[in-house]
Amino acid sequence: MMNGKNETGTEGCIDEAIFDNAHIMMVVMDKNGTISMWNRAAETMTGYGKAEVIGSAEIWKNVYPDPGYRHEVTHRIKEILAKRDYFENFETSIITKAGDTRVIAWNTREMKEGGNVRIVSVGVDITKQHEAERKVRDMNSFNEGIIENAHILISVLDQKGNVLIWNRAAEDITGYSRNDVVGKNTVWKSMYPDPAYRKEITKKITSIISSQMYFENLETTIVTKIGEQRIIAWNTREIGNGIWQHEIAIGRDITDQRKAERALVSYISEIAMRLKNPVEILRDNLAELARMTRNGTLTFDEIAVTLDGQVRSTAQVAANVAEFQKAVAEKNEEIPEAYRKFLSG
After folding, report:
1. What's the rounded Cα separation, in Å, for the pair 87 and 82?
2. Distance of CA 35 to the CA centre of its chain
3. DSSP three-state, residue 248
4. I need a labelling partner for 292 at 20 to 30 A (CA). Which of 200, 206, 274, 345 fits?
5. Hey, which residues does 11 pair with through a beta bridge?
6. How does pLDDT run across 108-117, given as a tens digit for each residue?
7. Measured in whole angstroms, how far is the alpha carbon of residue 338 from the centre of its chain?
8. For the residues of 163-222, what is the DSSP string, one character each?
C-alpha cells in the first residue's frame, strides 16, 4: 500500500500496481474534476495518455465534447451527489480521442484523508453489452410488426435450440403453433423425424457454424405436423453480448419453386425428346438434298420445292416449341423469372 504523496502527486492509500494494471478504467480526481491518477485501462479506453490528463480537468470536455450533453451529465451527477456521496452504474457515452463512442458505467467513492477529498471513479466499458441489448430491443420491436406479419418463417432460439420466438408464418409453414414449440427444442425432432437425415443435417450445420458462425441458403426438407414435406432455405445470424447468445433463424419455403424447377427440367427433357426425331429427319433430308444437288440429279425447281418443304417442317417445329413454352410458363407461376423470360421470349 502507498501512504502519503505518490509520484503523481496524489495523496491517499491506493495500491499503485493494482490501480495501474486493472482491466477497468480507474481515475482519481478532486471535486473540480482535476485528474491526479489515470490508469492504463483509462488510457486504452479513451485514447488519452496520462501526460495529457493529469493535473487538469480538460479531459471531461474532450470526452464529452457536446456542450448540451456535457451539461446534462454534470447536472445529473450533481443531483445524485446531493443525495449521497457516491453513485453506482451511472451510464454515459464518451467520445474517445479517435472519435469512437463508448458507453461507460461509472461507480464512484469519495476518499478522505488529511482534510483532502479525492473521488475515485471506476469506469466499466459496457459498449458491447449496450449493442447487444439494442439488438434485442430492435428484435422485440421487429417481432411486434414485421416478424409477426412476414411471409417467411422467423424463429429466435437460445443456445440449446429452445424456441423463443415463432412467428405466424412459422406456424403456417410447419403446422406447429407457438404453444407447441416456444420454450422447447422438441420441434426439431418433429420436423426431422428420420434419425439418419437429422444426423446428416446436424453434422452439416455444425461444420458450417464452426467455420463462419452462420449459414446462408442451407436447404433442408422438413416434415410438417400433418406429414407433408416442405423444402426450406435457412439463413441464420447470432446475436449476443458474450454472456448469452441467441440465434435468429429465417426459413424460406421454396417447395413450390423446387417443384417448378423440376417440372422445367422434365419439360426440357420432354421437348428435347420430341424434337429429336423431326430434327434428325430434317437433318437427313437436307443432307440428301445437298448430295443430290452436288451430283446434278435435281433441277433448280426441284431443289426449290424440296427446300420449301423443309422450311415448312422447320416452321412447324418452331411453332410447336413456342406453344409448349407458353403453356408451361402460364401454368407454372413459381418458375424463376429468368426461366420464365426464356420460355416467353
Report:
1. 11
2. 43
3. strand
4. 274
5. 5
6. 887 776 677 7
7. 27
8. EEEE-HHHHHHH---HHHHBT-STHHHHHS--HHHHHHHHHHHHHHHHHHS--SSEEEEE
